Fold these 2 entries.
Entry 1:
Amino acid sequence: MSCREVAPTIRIDLRFNGCCDASLGLCADTASENDLSEQLDGLTFIIDRETYQLTGDITISYVSQEGGQGYVITSNKPVSEWEGFAVTDIKF
Amino acid sequence: MEHYKLFIDGKFVDAQSGKTFQTIDPGTGAPIATVAQAGKEDAEAAIAAARRAFDKGEWSRMPVKARMAKVQDFADQVAQQGLRLAATESMDAGQIISLAKFMPLISITHMRNLSLAAATKFPWEEEIPVSGNAFAPGREFIRREPLGVCVGIVPWNYPMYIAVWKITPALCMGNTIVIKPASVTPLTACILAEAAKAAGIPDGVINVIPGPGGELGKVLCTHPDVDKIALTGSTEVGREIMRIASGTIKKVSLELGGKSANIILDDADIDLAVEGACFGTFFHQGQVCSSGTRLLVQSKIYDQFLDKMKKRAEMLRVGYQLDPTSHMGPIVSKEQLATVERYVKIGKEEGAEIITGGKRVDVPGMPEGNYYAPTIFAKVKNKMRIAQEEIFGPVVSVIKFDSDEEALAIANDSIYGLAGGVFSGNNARAQRLANQVRTGTMWINNYHIFSDFCPFGGYKQSGIGRDFLLECLHEYTQINRIHVNSMAHNHTNMYFQLISDYKKVDGFTYSAPTTVVSGHGALSSIYKAIVDLGCKRALILTDPGVKEAGLADIVKNALADFCVGMFDKVPADPDLEAVDAATEVARELKADCIVSVGGGSVMDTAKGVCVTLKNGGLANDYLNFLVLTEPQTPHIAVPTTSGTGSEVTSVAVLTSHKAGRKLFIVDPRISPNVAILDPIFTLGLPKSLTVSTAMDAMTHAVEAMTSTMSNLICDGMALQAIRLINENLALAVEDGKNEKARINLQVAATMAGWAFTTAQVGLAHGMAHTIGALHHVPHGAACGIILPKVMRYNVETSADKLAQVAHAMGVNIRGMSDKEAALAAADTVEALMQKVGHPMRLRDVGVPEENLAICAFHAIADTAVIFNGRPVSDPNDIIQLYTQAY
């Protein structure tokens, strides 16, 4: 995800990480008209409606394990067979 | 509907959980087969089977040619399944049939090429002729062995071909493998398993387990029985695999994403470049990791090019993949189609302009197919997401540039570096640009060209490792180095002695390759010697003093027409620059032989010239120990002093100004081929030089006797040298024209050279080197002053040897203890020095007393000190010796 100016919301977005498999990522962003939003623990999460249609409900977990930590994002309708395999950070 | 099973341990089995999944034709949206869905327990079973098969050795220890035959049988079975594989690949992965029909053929070719290379070209065992360790001689060689159990993770864009990329090198190198195909395209990997079984590949060598990557990946990449992971896939998955594979230090090779730049220069053939741009982007619906999805077009042709490319893209026929008239088939899955659409939306939001495409395509009768139009974005800035993130669909971002430098900067402004292209009418210009793009592959006036003998892989976040041929085969092996000691005895091992009080090296290898011609008139032998060496163009190296004395001209006349020139500028204490200057002259004159006429400086310079003339480059390149592997430029040495012994030694001492000290080339291959000891060259030697050079030779001989490397042959040489010097030095000093004394001193210096070139020297030389370097004391004079003091110091460990020295010097040692005789030897050396007028103290040769401590700290680090018979580790000992000599 590209960096936009620091915003109070976190976008859940579809992104492609090279050769074959898309995944879901997190990015600080501002909301637009076509977005859905959800307040959770004082944070506002936004997602493009079309992306939501593709993914269904999304679960975000924070994991800390040997060699790395970050967010694991899974969805009701996985965007690829590798969903949940890797961790991601919030891009600013 | 056809059902495909897992392939584990040579058997087709259902998943232990009983789960199955459907695989979908992306062109119709209809399921085409059911497939057993492997879970964690199936992955563990596959790994266990692969481990058993590897450890059993039937495959891993099979002779390479037998293994090649088996892989070729496998290739034959793939050929027999060719039509089924092509049709299945097309239906499962959406490859147009005109592409899929080639997949079996190029897979077979790959299997045959790699197996043949593995059996006939691969360096399974390699000798290391030069070990780089001068202190531990022995045979050194390496054996390459298979790694063990490999895991191949295969993507969905080329399911069969990339499975073959993983299976073939793994098998050819004796490994076993577990293949995990992509879940959306599992079928052809399962058919490959059938082909492997039919070919008689042993059970467990290949295992195929379709199933979800998120679940299986954790098992495959962390299991302790897995030795290597080979992934073609996303950078995100590759990064995680690297991380979790690190827990058990697995070998990893990753071929990951790309955002390659295809650069269209203003001198390109426009029609060719348009075709290359379309093929580079829209081929296989853009689902190729090497796609040139950043299309960089030079501003001068930008409008014309874009207009033509738009028209060409709109001519591409998007249709069902089995229709032979289709140019582009469907996107592989609904999810991937959604990803493409998401990026097109992002591109619009970022301000890029769609000039064609940007929408789905309705293919008649295929309402559920994932068809998308070839899409061109103009007005793209390289910072936009559509220019930085891989889309993996038929979407190209066109970026305008003005200069080649700007194109290069844009091309390199990416986290990826997998491939790229340049289209230009000027190969030189294109290559200049291609050379500077930081990427694994560049095509010039072409795109997407893969070849079995050309490596493929990425820079930066595009991956590590390479597919294809030898580079790839190496990645499926590990190196086993074998050292076989040449001298299997604990007292010949300098390393073991680091933890032992016994420092003497008992065994030895003696090599004296130089032919010596000695006596009155010996010089005339040079005329035949040069012919015997197969040479016709000799360059004489000498110094201004020797030239002035007319000695070089005597040699020139003896060489007659064989002499092509003379380099007479060798300085005292020669440096690397002197060698390079002389080499340059030798190259200009096409010299094929070097004749050195002079003392140690000239002969050492000549040795350096012989090496650089033979091997190219500069003298600095070759400052090392035992690294030469073949004979050097022939060298005939004509010494004009009787001291250095360089005419037969394997060392050249050269000053490196950058290193701030004298450094060495040490190698038997730099020993001169012929040494001519003719007294005509020393009859005119001044008294002081006669004395100091003789004491240099005396020091060589005495220290060769007392060094840790001393041996019976060198002892004999040294004792005879000592005897000859003791008996003849005074005679030569008394009458410089005494030819017999001169000959004897020449032979003594040569024999001392032979002695120390194997046995080495010791502390006296280390101390003399230091005061020579710091206070410009002539080497021979410094050696003479220091030697008796060091002899007394060494009595503790070398009394027996020094007693022999005393005997050789005419001391009647009968009734003396070894220690008494050894001390008498030192006294006798001093007596000889006094008799011939040698300086006796350091103060006599200009060394300031206050510098003795500094000298000691330098001397203890001198290489020669390593070999001193009495170990030297305390600089205070050396200060005391310098003080005694002061």
Entry 2:
Amino acid sequence: MANKHGIMQIVSNVKIAKDVYKMIVKGDGVKYIQRSGQFVNLKIDNIETYLRRPMSICDYDYATDSLTIIYKVVGRGTRLMQKMQPNEYVDMLIGLGNGFMIPNSIKTALLVGGGVGVPPLYKLAKDLHQKDINVVSVFGFRNKEDIFYEEEFKQFGQVYIATDDGSYGFKGNVIELIKEKKIRYDKYFACGPERMLDGLVLFDHQNGYLSFEERMGCGFGACMGCSCKVKTAPYKRICVEGPVLEASEVIVRG
Amino acid sequence: MDKRLEITLPGMTIKNPIIPASGTYGFGYEFADFYDINILGSIMLKGTTLEPRFGNPLPRIAEGKYGMLNAIGLQNPGVDKVMSEELEKLRPLYNDVVIANVAGSSIEDYIETAKRISSHDKVGALELNISCPNVKAGGIQFGTDPTMAKELTRRVKEVSSKPVYVKLSPNVTDITIMAKAVEEAGADGITMINTLIGMRFDLKTAKPIIYNKTGGYSGPAIFPVALRMIYQVYQAVNIPIIGMGGVSSAEDVIEMMYAGASAVAVGSSNLVDPYACVKIIKRLPDLMDELAINKLENIIGRSHNNGE
């Protein structure tokens, strides 16, 4: 029987870009993770935060019982997370959602990330690289200050960066960059704002896997708070049948 | 099994008074990932309608201090699929009977859904949802007008082969009027309270966070409101009450039973802590010892007898 619950100890919690923090935690709950692209739902012990916070898993390692999340400070919950200190404990539900399935027989994978949509692609890049699949990464940020993990992804292949204001790399969005550089791939794997994901589906609705973000009540399929309409079923719950959907089933602005 | 926790209700004798509340527990099987759900007294299923419903557009969820807002809008696969698929998925995981939550837009919808689902062998009782605040037609209009509530309850009682509990809304001026109305119509019990209608706004855009604008507020913040209403209804009617509203501990359960609840449903707590029901059930016997409570059934409504 699955359990999915872990009390995890914070190893580090440091700033890596403007408003963006990287938290490493350790504990035996790491064993509940099955693959990259899954998420944790963490409890912040405070009167302001009744519900848990779903956060994508950036990296994990069974040998050291550790997992990494990268989050942007955007509201009450993440402001409280930013203040958490090493050695404190965090209550997490771990290994939620379907995660990224890597299809057989692909030679080149394109990773497309937007802002804090980049983190869940990191462990995926590692896994693809280990399977000898070429990795090309295209990441979009608002500006130079927001960029993180460019070097980390370079160890797995070429990395292209786009910024909205052109302060670093390509000026424009990730789709314009993919077109401009004529990037070829067998499948793409994407995570980022819904506008970016919708744009990708309109660009290529056959060869992609997209990880969606949604407000959740529970994170494990009980409350129906995150259901979205898809072409292949009456609905899918982003927390259980997602967060990763196939491009061919996504209803744009659905 | 500890007989001290056993409760007898119309249609079912349950091994303990703890029941996950409708809408916070899906159709039960999702929680089997976390623990053996056979520990539960019963399960209140996700609200079920005649036809499948997708529910409201997203966002459907927001939060407040010690509570949450939801506007799911009765998403469910429709009564036929609930009976043929959802209850069959639950069957191997849960041995006791469950309480089916029946919702609809018209009296005819409720009647047909109740007729069908009450025939299922896993269903021990119905919970008539006349208080969902998140759907436009039906739902709460039946729960705020005593004449309509009475009529609906009477008609559903005629077709249901199982006891019928009616779930009351707190969004009324005097909840005892509604309670008396459904009792007169033949309701076997009352479940209360549903969520309180609330709103939250986005600081930057000034727009409501929830697409539906309003949602139902639940969680520990509403617990005292639930206690007060159960206390009032216990004095107004003679049918049993399954209490709910912000329960998150064994202590809350005892308090709610003192107020007049015969059993207690746990709602939002399940979403925040999937082990909430288990923790409460495991804590109850020790807490009963501490409070010198021999049998839980003896404390129902104790607050009304000067604590005797």
